[in-house]
Specification:
CATH architecture of the largest domain: 3-Layer(aba) Sandwich
Radius of gyration: 22 Å
Number of strands: 14
Strand content: 5-15%
Structural class: alpha/beta
Distance between the termini: 28 Å
Number of domains: 2
Helix content: 25-40%
Largest sheet: 7 strands, parallel
Number of helices: 13
Shape: globular
Oligomer: single chain
Order of helices and strands: EHEEEEEEHHHEHEHHHEEHEHEHHEH
Length: 373
């Protein structure tokens, strides 16, 4: 029997108006004490409770319940939604960059380091797995509102400077694709990842707005600059609202890199392996590979493997941005193209461009095709 997920107390209150006997509901981080009185004839049969607050007097209403209790961690082990910038940067004060140390993101990161990147304590490792399971579930819920062929990722280096021409190009491509109805996703960190979400955040605004934002950001060109985060929030003060969404998927494994606050939704993981493979998997509309180092190259071959084996039913385009970089400095494109030609790789949809409009057209061409049957 498939469980129906209940992630909001108001949803359950409305259900109570309709019936009194429920089976196979899954409650996530629900505080049942907010319901002052339950009907005497209420029955919750074979229901799942993840990190819920259940007053003792309501226990009699539970039959065959599976209860996962709260755990005393500095993070919610069972988050029922994705993070936002307001969650992770809860105590950040614009103009006081030192307050970054006090944010939820950094409190969790310090705990993560103190308990070990590879936790040896069984309670800690279990808590992390349960947290990451909830994040995956929240991502799946979020993506249900999008056509999978219109979920597109940017992969690229975290060290890309905000002043670099490629930063503007990535932001511009992301802006245009978002306006065309695509959901842009990335690893959710600085550099090329941040540019992706900046473009999505400014979708619907003119190019002058994008340039204004970058002019502010480039005063703190990389994430090691003490004002990197402060400049981002300065931009958000000027452009506080966006009509568009994007999804960042960072990890506390790289917790020294702050997650970009320009991502409207943030699915942050402890396990980088789960995060990385999952990120590649959900980008079924294609991946644009901007210049990057070892991490980006690893992702290229992971994606090539998924496409080669048609792991999820079909192959998605692999679009390389930067001919000189990917054909001369890091000739990965040449390697893949040659192996595809020789039949050692199959099903790869490869292209390489310098021009932003050509990259946008490659993405749209795949969407228009009948690859998915």
């Amino acid at each position: 029997m498939k469980y129906r997920e209940i992630e909001n107390i108001e949803v359950f209150k409305n259900l109570l108006k309709e019936q009194k006997h429920f089976s196979y509901l899954a409650f996530q981080s629900i505080d049942f004490s907010l319901i002052p009185s339950w009907p005497d004839d209420l029955i919750l049969d074979h229901c799942l409770f993840l990190g819920c607050t259940i007053p003792d007097k309501w226990q009699k209403h539970l039959k065959h319940a599976l209860i996962f209790p709260k755990m005393d961690m500095p993070y919610n082990v069972y988050p029922n939604r994705l993070y936002t910038k307001n969650d992770l940067y809860d105590k950040y004060i614009l103009g006081k960059p030192e307050t970054y140390y006090h944010t939820l993101d950094q409190r969790i990161y310090r705990h993560y380091i103190e308990t070990g990147k590879q936790a040896t304590d069984i309670k800690e490792s279990l808590a992390r797995r349960l947290h990451d399971h909830s994040i995956t579930d929240a991502i799946e819920d979020f993506l249900a509102g999008y056509d999978e062929k219109q979920v597109v990722a940017f992969m690229g280096g975290h060290g890309l400077l905000r002043s670099d021409v490629n930063y503007y190009k990535i932001a511009y491509i992301s802006k245009i694709l978002t306006e065309e109805g695509y959901l842009m996703i990335s690893g959710g960190g600085p550099g090329a990842m941040e540019a992706t979400h900046l473009g999505a955040w400014l979708a619907g605004k003119d190019e002058k707005s994008l340039q204004t934002a970058i002019d502010i950001l480039k005063d703190a060109p990389d994430y090691k600059h003490p004002l990197w985060l402060d400049k981002a929030f300065e931009v958000l003060k000027i452009f506080p609202e966006s009509d568009y969404e994007s999804l960042g998927v960072p990890t506390w494994l790289y917790g020294h890199e702050p997650p970009t606050p320009f991502a409207s939704q943030i699915g942050k993981y402890f396990a980088n392996s789960v995060r990385e493979d999952g990120l590649l998997t959900i980008a079924k509309g294609g991946i644009i590979f901007a210049p990057g180092s070892a991490g980006t190259i690893q992702e290229i071959f992971q994606e090539a493997t998924q496409n080669h084996y048609l792991s999820f039913g079909y192959a998605s385009p692999m679009i390389f941005m930067g001919k000189k970089y990917w054909q001369e400095e890091r000739p990965v494109y040449n390697c893949l193209a040659q192996m595809l030609k020789e039949g050692k790789y199959k099903n790869l949809i490869l292209s390489i461009h310098d021009d932003a409009l050509m990259i946008i057209e490659e993405v749209k061409k795949f969407t228009r095709s009948n690859v998915i049957t």
